[in-house]
Amino acid sequence: MTDATTKKPLRVSVDGTAGPYILVPGEQLAEVERLLRSHGVRCWTDGNAISLNDAPAVGVINLGRRGNAVAVQSLLDAHP
């Protein structure tokens, strides 16, 4: 799946201590969350997308400590 703002693929990040997460443009939060949930992926958003320095708003989709980053990345890659 492509980031609507950067036109680059969305990536699952694993650098946090709370588990893997995805940074998603605010306009795509609902779409990506719907995709994940439709494939049985447990996830949640922080509820708000934030914008810094007039950049487009970005939200976080959390996958939790037990989130399977590899499987979720494969899912994102399979859905343009």
Secondary structure topology:
Layout: E1 12-13, E2 21-25, H1 29-38, E3 44-45, E4 58-62, H2 69-78
Antiparallel strand pairs: 1-2, 2-4, 3-4
Walkthrough of the structure:
This protein is an alpha+beta fold. The longest helix is centred in the middle third of the chain and has 10 residues, at 29-38. It has helices at 29-38, 69-78, and strands at residues 12-13, 21-25, 44-45, 58-62. It has a four-stranded antiparallel beta sheet with strand order 1-2-4-3. A hairpin with a 7-residue loop joins strand 1 and strand 2. The chain is 25% helix and 18% strand. It has a single domain, classed as Alpha-Beta Plaits, CATH 3.30.70. It is built from two helices and four strands; from the N terminus they run E-E-H-E-E-H.
Short note summarizing the structure:
The chain is an alpha+beta fold. The protein contains 2 helices and 4 strands.
CATH classification, class level: Alpha Beta
The sequence of SSEs as H and E is: EEHEEH
Domain module tally: 1
Fraction of residues in H or I helices: 25-40%
Large-scale geometry: globular
Count of helical segments?
2
- Our estimate of the beta-strand percent is 15-25%
Strand order of the largest sheet: 1-2-4-3
| Average pLDDT over all residues | 92
- Weakly predicted, low-confidence segments: none
Rounded Rg: 12 Å
- How far apart are the termini? 4 Å
* Biggest beta sheet attributes: 4 strands, antiparallel
Q: Which second-level CATH architecture applies?
A: 2-Layer Sandwich
* Strands, total number: 4
The CATH topology name reads Alpha-Beta Plaits
What structural category characterises the helix and strand content?
alpha+beta
